[in-house]
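Support reply, case 0932

Customer input (verbatim):
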Amino acid sequence: MKESRTDHRPVVVESPRHLPLVDLLVDARSELFELAVRSGLKVLETMLEEDRTAICGPRYAHVADRQAARAGTVRSEVVLGGRKVAIRRPRVRAGGQEVGLPTFEAMADVDPLNRRVVEQMLVGVATRRYARSLEPVPTTMRSRGTSKSAVSRRFVAKTAAQLAAWQTAALDTLDLVGLLIDGVHIGEHCLMVALGIAADGQKHALGLWDGSTENARVCQDLLANLQSRGLRTDRSLLVILDGSKALRKAVRATFGEAALVQRCQVHKTRNILEYLSERDRPWAHALLRRAYAAADPKLAQRLLLDLARRLEAEYPSAAESVREGLDETLTVLTLKLSPRLRRSLATTNAAESLISRTRLVKRNVKRWRGGQMMLRWVAAGILEAVKGFRRLKGYADMPTLVSALRARDRQLGLVATEEGRQVA
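Our regenerated output:
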């Protein structure tokens, strides 16, 4: 039987016709945005003309006591979409001098432009890519202010002004009952950050100071700055520290007996466990957690001393670390606070959380050019993080903390008058 031949010719499948739908959508979006921009500028021109009419009166109308007159138009600029764009501004003159138009003064304000530059830089937009991050404007519209140098100048000016305003802001209106201080290392610099806790549980970023290390001089300067701005040192304040001896010394020198120091339990736990082997860390960590979670300070102290005795033979340095500052790690247990508020005030986590939000900001910088640049960038990151602040966890029990601090004032003779003066 004769075999039939099989046709092995490849089957040609016609490709579907390309429909430029995406291109059409892109073009439509671009044209729609250009239309919105042109419409917005037309509205602006109308508002400017209404301002001129309000000052000069209706065009061609006879006004007997007219004080100002129209003077044509002049080329000017307004801020639009993160850049400056050129417009023709109506002019008004009176008594030989130019009269400002309220709408133009608002639209020409460069502060929104500076804020836009800072926001873009903080989210990682490079200066040379700033223009690409903005919505496009019609090609017929003249604009400027998006070059690398212009963006850099605006960022430096705005962040420097933010830093100066922050470091000089008055603190006397804040009813602070807690103070957290922690440091962040950038290269060879150490930036000290102060975070305040108000009586209502609100958190307030108070200040930033630069130094080579967490030495006593830097810490003392930071606290002196806070004191000069109105931070009260005449009544008890819960001060939460990471265990730095220099910082502890500076706090004692500034606040004296008014400082009720709480050593960060997280830092203390970390320091103790670093002395131990991987095999012994789990059980030691469990004992530390049990002690710090105890509601009774005497029970917590007993557990910690028992841990120190168990570590004495094999890890004497760890045992010494447990005993060092033991009472100050249990300060919050003596205040009879709710468990949730006690956990919030037992560590510097709130300050560290604030500092952690600056890590993205720090990654955006490839080369640091001195401490002032570090201060500006970190301050910009902190002030951006402040916008998302929430009250301290457990804030509902803050009246208990306030009552305990005021009772301590009476016990130590630190009762302050309404004028803020210390009396015996």
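We compared this against your earlier run and they match. Two observations from our side: Residues 173-412 form one domain. Confidence is low (pLDDT under 50) at residues 417-424. Please reopen the case if you see a mismatch on your end.
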